[in-house]
Amino acid sequence: MFKKKPQIKNLSPLRSSDRRKLADQIIADYKVHVPTLAEIDPSAPTEEGKAATASSNPTPALSSIRTSLIPETCLSARFTTHAGANATLVSGTVYVGAYPGQEERILWIQYGKDSRLYPTVYTLWHNPGIVPLLHTPDFVVEKLRTGADLMTPGLFGGPPWPEAAKPGAVVAVAALERPSVPVWVGTCKIDISSLGRVQGTKGAAIEGVHWEGDEIWNWSHTGSGGRVAPDRIEDWELEIKGAEEGVAELDLDEDEDAQEDGGVALDPTTTADQNGQNMAIGSTEHHGVEQEPEQEPTTAEVDEAFLQAFIYAAHNAKKEGEPPHYGIDFPIQPSFLIANMVQPHLRFPNQHYTIKKTSWKNTKKFIKYLDKSMLVKSKDRNGGETVILDIDFEDERIRSFTPYKLPKPKPQHTSVMNDGAGAQPPANGGAGADPSLGQKLSIQTVYRASSKLVPDLIPSKTTFYTSSHISGFLKKYIENNPELTRNASSPRYVKLDPFIANNILSSNPSASDTRALAAGEIARDTLLKRVLEDSHLCLPHWLLLRNAQTYGDPDNPDPALPKPKSAPPPHVSVVLEKRSGTKVATKISGLEVFGINPQILGPELQRKCAGSASVGQHVGGKPGMMEILVQGDQRDVVEKELGRRGVDKRWIVVDDKTKKKKK
Question: What is the pTM of this model?
Fold first, then answer.
């Protein structure tokens, strides 16, 4: 179904309540085991018979499983595509999310009359064991990637077969070369769990839905393509630990009848011992010490960690800066407080230590608490945002603070991590994944002369000239006509001749033109300004120069330069508006012309602003022109991030719609 690229509409953030409902639906549909409180801590008091998946009182394990299935920053979008030989129109929903250290990918597909949810390979790599895993030879996998179904003789590893592989069940398929890495997802057409030996049988066993290499796998915000599968996934190896015994006893006789039914016959030259060894390699390599899961801290512990992190940041600023503000720019916005002061100084920077896990639940209440504790002075600005105006650096808690050891940032590895997902670095590595970072931009204004000035003043009406070029032409014209300066009242002035009077000053004349005509002379700089500012004489155009590009010889322009455009010079639009009553949001559009990808900048702003951000079609803009929506008044952060990408402040137009209109 996804052999061809589906039409995916604009992504929108998934509400927390909808995310929890979706995760609970997946847990129920796929019978995901959620440890109860008694299993986690036998000494903990529990209500007899109470289900662990109750959303009214979720266990720490349930919250962790929900996040693993549906990440907190999950997005959703509708899609349409065509499937089958008759190209039947199919519509549904895709759910996009990012696991830690990885790029956003499509994690779940929902379609069909029953709105069934299908995991993608990215979800399976991160969540071992949620579906039964079957195996087939590598050359069969290559055939499956063309859209074929998996025939019954192509199954390897049984009997016995997974008990959950019943008709209609979602299953995953891995190649024998990498038996712990699912690369194909489908639904059972027969009861595989009850099969015996499959050699000599006929018919399709599994109908394909999605695989590594299709357009769902290939989708990404940045257009970088799909992520290569890891070499092995340890937790999946545990799921298939007993499979190698069954494989070693298989008879690999060629099944010619399977080909007649559309299946792939098995190669008789492939020995059972070799396949058994391939499956056994992954199983025998798993001897590492399993890391203990992180225990979720109490709310009081998270509160204390946030408070200590802020004091640590203030202590460092006082130690390294100069009074009175010690290098801190006030006022401090909520996003800056969390992203640049609290998070870098947390003793345990993990998923449990977030502002939502504190008793304050949001940054505004956290700032109010700091104010009440006499550590800071805060103020509510227009739009309901609370900022920090000053910090009491003489407070005893800051002066006597003893710094604790901060954890080192974890480097990204290309090898498979414990969760089996294997974080892959960006194609260009690190910050280089955003090609617009560090670029140098300049907007060059050029002019195209009208026929009134050609050829007396300007040689061509099709060539684009800069203001310095036109100034040179005017100077040369005056030098070639010495009578213009002979009787002038000052060296700064030139006498009017028929060309200047009729072709320049008579074009859309102003009051100053009338005075010049009456005086019979005009200042040189005024004449040049008159030529450049009259669009009937010189039509202005602009072109965007990047890095070392320059607009040199107008008669032989660099072919790599963009074509000048006659529209007004471009700008980035930053609009502040109220949404849902008093909440302020920042919308950014007009990025594409400056070579900035909104799909890359959006997640970056989300991290910098410590708030939600979404990317969608720009309302009122051309198709394909996107806009970023960020929570809060983030104009300063946006201006700083655009500056890092070469956008000058003069090219940023801010429209603050949160201010009260004057009556």
Answer: 0.44
